[in-house]
């Protein structure tokens, strides 16, 4: 059974089956075995996140090989870890101690020793000053510019062994401070300098994953990768050598800055860029020198730089011109239009093109090279404009051609439709089409005297009466009498009367109508239309009789 503690004093301790829990149960600290070994480590981990996510290990380089370790205070108030033999395997080595010390685990993940007789803010030791491989909110990386001493994140040896690995993440205090990743003494990657908004070289993407930043998603219950680096080849420190820039979208990615040329052209052309580039023309070291503006850049290595937080950009340019070794300048802070000054001396190292979050830098050039660079830039700009115009014209031509082809297809389709319509009209001459004026004229403008009854299919006109009297041809208007064949007209009238018969089950369905139209089969004699007026003797004691009102709703199709 695990016993949870909230704090320990100099007279208390934490054993293998005990843990220290933060006030809001966010973090937990205690002894854990890692990997497939039985090695014990005193760790801090997220309490309610699965799988167990460790954020700090006290004895990362000195594991305990038995089940009876203890975390306690020394008599002087210094936190230590002892093994079963009482040998100290880890010590906080706190410079300050207190006999009234209290050990607490805060909800930030910070393990602190407080002086019990003082206020809460009097912390005599804290784990945040000694980070492992994880940087938590509230934890700081710092460097003493005088002594050069700094703290750092150091990778694990592997995923199950917290022993110090090869990679370190820390602040470089030479020149303007910048975050770097090193392997031993070798500089691998720079995150760039802080410009008030972001580090100018923080990558977006995934490749080596030497440095990763995660955010916990409580909704998905998983760690989400927010940021990592290096992102690509251009993030490798000094890939292109001195006085060059790296653009991952180019092939090859390295090119000399304007006004510079490869130091050893043959070697450079063999895809070995380590020797970098040198000036084509030396600086005059006077006011005739000028500056070429580069935008969207990860700023160069600041280990050989000078900065002033209060200087304007115009003053920064003048300051650079005063020193012949000055090679470039830039704003220190990009907020509110920019402020501060940063100046680089001698060679420019590790600059790259950033697509999303780079900034401006001004590279110093001799007057003649500045003119050449401007001309080259104008040529590139002109070439870009011409390419853009050409692309636009090509695009418009392509669109026009597509529209032309589609219009031809539509015209051809319309023509074919007209031809088919004419053919259909010729083929279906037995079903003539009458316009509205013709029908209105034939019914005397739908005169009431011509209506014999009304039902589900509208007015039934004189056709039924003329049919019974064998005078069907009188139904045909004189104005169209010469344009139709009598037999076809009689067939259409007969079909119309069949479709308005009183009983719905006597009426032909649409498939039968289609056969009637397309064939010469003998049609049945139509029966009385629906709602035909019956002649009934009047009676005062009998209600008036009507035919049964039966209606049919079928699929609506043209008759």
CATH level-4 homologous superfamily of the domain at 3-137: Bulb-type lectin domain
Shape: elongated
Report the β-strand fraction as a percent range. Answer: 25-35%
Give the number of helices.
7
- Under the CATH scheme, which class of the domain at 3-137? Mainly Beta
Structural class by sheet pairing and helices: alpha+beta
CA radius of gyration is 47 Å
The count of β-strands is 31
* Major sheet details: 8 strands, mixed
Mean pLDDT: 79
Strand order of the largest sheet: 21-20-28-24-29-26-27-25
**pLDDT < 50 runs, ≥5 residues:** 203-209, 455-459, 534-557
As a percent range, the share of helical residues equals 10-25%
Termini separation (Å)? 88 Å
The CATH level-2 architecture of the domain at 3-137 is identified as: Orthogonal Prism
Q: Indicate the CATH topology of the domain at 3-137.
A: Agglutinin, subunit A
Pfam families: B_lectin (PF01453), PAN_2 (PF08276), S_locus_glycop (PF00954)
Domain Apple: 285-366
Keywords: Disulfide bond, Glycoprotein, Membrane, Phosphoprotein, Receptor, Signal, Transmembrane, Transmembrane helix
Domain Bulb-type lectin: 5-126
């Amino acid at each position: 059974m695990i016993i949870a503690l909230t704090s320990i004093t100099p007279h208390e301790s934490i054993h293998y089956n005990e843990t220290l829990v933060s006030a809001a149960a966010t973090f937990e600290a205690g002894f854990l075995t890692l990997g497939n070994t039985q090695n014990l480590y005193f760790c801090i981990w997220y309490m309610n996140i699965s799988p167990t996510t460790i954020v700090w290990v006290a004895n990362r380089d000195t594991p305990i090989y038995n089940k009876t370790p203890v975390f306690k205070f020394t008599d002087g108030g210094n936190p230590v870890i002892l093994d079963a033999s009482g040998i100290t395997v880890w010590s906080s080595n706190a410079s300050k101690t207190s006999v009234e010390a209290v050990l607490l685990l805060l909800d930030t993940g910070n393990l602190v020793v407080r002086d019990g007789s003082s206020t809460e803010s009097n912390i005599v030791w804290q784990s945040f000053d000694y980070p492992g491989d994880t940087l938590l909110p509230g934890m700081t990386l710092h460097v003493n510019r005088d002594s050069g001493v700094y703290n750092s994140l150091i990778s694990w040896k592997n995923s199950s062994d917290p022993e110090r690995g090869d990679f370190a993440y820390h602040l470089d205090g030479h020149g303007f401070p910048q975050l770097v990743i090193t392997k031993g003494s070798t500089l691998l990657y720079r995150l760039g300098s802080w410009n008030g908004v972001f580090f100018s070289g923080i990558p977006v993407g995934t490749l080596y994953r030497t440095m990763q930043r995660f955010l916990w998603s409580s909704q998905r219950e998983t760690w989400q990768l927010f940021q990592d680096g290096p992102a690509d080849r251009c993030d490798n420190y000094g890939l292109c050598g001195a006085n060059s820039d790296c653009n991952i979208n180019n092939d090859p990615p390295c090119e000399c800055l304007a006004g510079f040329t490869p130091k050893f052209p043959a070697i450079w052309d063999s895809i070995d860029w380590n020797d970098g580039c040198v000036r084509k023309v030396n600086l005059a070291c006077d006011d005739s020198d000028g500056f070429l503006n580069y935008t969207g850049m990860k700023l160069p290595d600041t280990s050989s730089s000078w900065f002033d937080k209060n200087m304007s950009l115009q003053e920064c340019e003048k300051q650079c011109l005063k020193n012949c070794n000055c090679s470039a300048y830039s704003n220190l802070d990009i907020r509110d239009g920019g402020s501060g000054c940063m100046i680089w001396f001698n060679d420019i190292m590790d600059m790259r093109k950033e697509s999303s979050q780079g900034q401006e830098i001004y590279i110093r050039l001799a007057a003649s090279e500045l003119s050449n660079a401007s001309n080259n830039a104008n040529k590139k700009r002109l070439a870009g404009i011409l390419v853009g115009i050409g692309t636009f014209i090509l695009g418009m031509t392509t669109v026009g051609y597509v529209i032309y082809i589609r219009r031809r297809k539509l015209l051809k389709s319309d023509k074919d439709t007209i031809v088919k319509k004419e053919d259909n009209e010729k083929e279906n001459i037995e079903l003539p089409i009458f316009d509205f004026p013709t029908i209105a004229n034939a019914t005397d403008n739908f005169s009431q005297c011509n209506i014999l009854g009304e039902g589900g299919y509208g007015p039934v006109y004189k056709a039924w009466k003329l049919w019974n009297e064998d005078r069907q041809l009188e139904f045909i208007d004189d104005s169209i009498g010469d344009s139709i064949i009598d037999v076809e007209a009689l067939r259409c009238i007969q079909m119309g009367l069949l479709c308005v018969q009183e009983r719905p089950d006597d009426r032909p369905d649409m498939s039968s109508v289609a056969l009637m139209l397309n064939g010469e089969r003998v049609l049945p004699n139509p029966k009385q239309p629906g709602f035909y007026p019956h002649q009934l003797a009047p009676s005062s004691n009998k209600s008036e009789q009507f035919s049964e009102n039966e209606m049919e709703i079928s699929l609506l199709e043209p008759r």
